[in-house]
Amino acid sequence: MSPSRRDVITSLSTLFAMPLLRTLSLTERAAAADPLSGTVVTYQAGRARGDYTAEDVVRLALERADGHGRALRAIDALAVDALDSARASDARWRAGALLGPLDGVPVFAKSICDMRGLPTTASSAEWAALFPHAATRDALEVQRLRAVGAVVLGKTAADDFAYRGNGTSSLTGQVRNPYDGAGIRTPGGSSAGAAVVVACHMAFAALGTDDGGSNRIPAQFTGVVGMKPTFGLVPRTGVIPTWPYLDTHGPLARFVADAALMLDAIAGPDSSDGLAHTAPWERGSLSALRDDALRGARLGVVGLHAPRTQMSAKSLALYDRALADCESAGAILEPVELPVTRVNVQARFAEVAQARGDVAPNARAAAPTVNALQRYFAGQGVEGSAADAVRRGLAAVRAFYDVIPAEWARVQPMLSQPYEADAASRSFARSREAVVGELSAFMQARRLDALVYPTMPFPAPAASDPWPDVRTPLGYGNWLGLPEVSVPAGYLDGGLPGGNLSFVGLPWRDRQMLGLAYAYEQQSRRFAPPPLRW
């Protein structure tokens, strides 16, 4: 006998650790017109009411991605098994056996992620020609999403090899910013397509990567939520590697709660990534967020990370309003001068390395990337040896990661040098630990729960123009491995996203940063979908 509607609602309430019966009555009208427009909770509530099935909504999402998504050049490839996955979720629904809150929820991966049945193009025309075969495995993050029932619709376009922040792919072309009717502004990158598909109601969330802002840049330029988790929280197996000691994977979504659900699904240790954190991860720990989390929270306002004299009057007004929203939600704002900032972080790493007699720290050494690439191919099962595959793709990768030697005779010994043991990289990791310790002592002495500052101090420029000559704090979080949640703060005249507010904490405070960001989001409610121009 099939479970009753009330049985399903009760089951959902347990999955979300929240009173879903109350949420149904408050939100059902908001998502009635478009089941992809709300949160994961409102989507599942619509299923509980019988408004639609997962198959219905996945079909709609695929139609949008194939039409609007391709027009925006945001789509790398669409999965052939998405509808089958949706039907399987509907069967679990009828049996009362959902795998979790993401069961049946449409999401996307990124073009550098392996996904069985699709080639891994890296958004590079040259790479796609060199390696046209379909992957026979899923990246670990994709595996984990499937394990909780999520429907992975396909993969989104990015900058070639996830390098640079413009959304420029040699394979699919320049990804377009959906808020810009003229079609000239960048959506940011490298996770450009991931941000666009969630902003345009093609999915609830998407996987992105971040070495120096690749999630947070497109989050700001397209007005969505982007997260860079604590370094090592999300293993990166099955994804074309970048810089092993900086690369951090995380979610993009329209809403903080949905980003939290995706992170909850993909986080946790795995021995296949030698730099992943080894502590156990308790699934479900991010499912409940409180709208009063800012009440009494002490936020350090980092003036050096908000270059007020270089920000436009409108951008500055949006930032000041965001701070006022935090205060209205009960936060205590404290201007701070940190011991380590975006200005001195690299010098501080070098100083502490020198003081301990270590080699110079280097997060972008060639050998770790080469070794990571060799491991990637070994796990993928390419024809021939992994070394042959690296050699075949070397010129394409070197066009971006040019620290890698051009001569194969110099590259070949790096293949078998474990990135965990690289001297310059290990020195970087030791410096990170020491400098984060300094920051931790300062924040504890000042009783600070988080730091806040603009994700970036300017809105999206034209894709063909150089960025404004203003340093951003993006790389600061990657060097220190800090969790950061970037949340929309408002729009400029004409509807272009004007800026995001970043909540930044000490390592392993991911849940706390999501909670603060969620409370800010509930106070401000700044997200507005782009017009359907394309």
Features:
534 residues, 3 domains, 11-stranded mixed beta sheet, 40% helix
Q: Termini distance?
A: 46 Å
Main β-sheet, spatial strand arrangement: 1-3-2-6-8-7-12-13-11-9-10
Q: Strand percentage, roughly?
A: 5-15%
CATH superfamily of the largest domain: Amidase signature (AS) domain
From the 3D coordinates, which CATH architecture of the largest domain would you assign?
A: Alpha-Beta Complex
Q: Which word captures the global form?
A: globular
Task: Break the fold down into its secondary structure elements and pairings.
Blueprint: H1 5-16, H2 20-32, H3 40-49, H4 54-71, E1 75-78, H5 82-95, E2 106-110, H6 125-130, H7 140-147, E3 151-156, E4 168-169, E5 173-174, H8 192-199, E6 205-210, H9 216-222, E7 225-228, E8 248-253, H10 256-266, E9 298-302, H11 313-328, E10 332-336, H12 345-355, H13 366-380, H14 386-398, H15 408-411, H16 423-445, E11 450-454, H17 474-480, E12 484-491, E13 497-504, H18 510-524
Parallel strand pairs: 2-3, 2-6, 9-10, 9-11
Antiparallel strand pairs: 1-3, 4-5, 6-8, 7-8, 7-12, 11-13, 12-13
Describe the structure in your own words.
- This protein is of the alpha/beta class.
- The protein has three domains: 1-52, no CATH class; 53-293 and 459-524, Amidase signature (AS) enzymes, CATH 3.90.1300; 366-421, no CATH class.
- Helices cover 40% and strands 12% of the residues.
- The strands form two sheets. Strands 1-3-2-6-8-7-12-13-11-9-10 form an eleven-stranded mixed β-sheet, with helices on both faces. Strands 4-5 form a two-stranded antiparallel ribbon.
- Helix 1 (5-16) packs antiparallel against helix 3 (40-49), helix 4 (54-71) packs antiparallel against helix 5 (82-95) and helix 12 packs across helix 16.
- The longest helix has 23 residues, at 423-445.
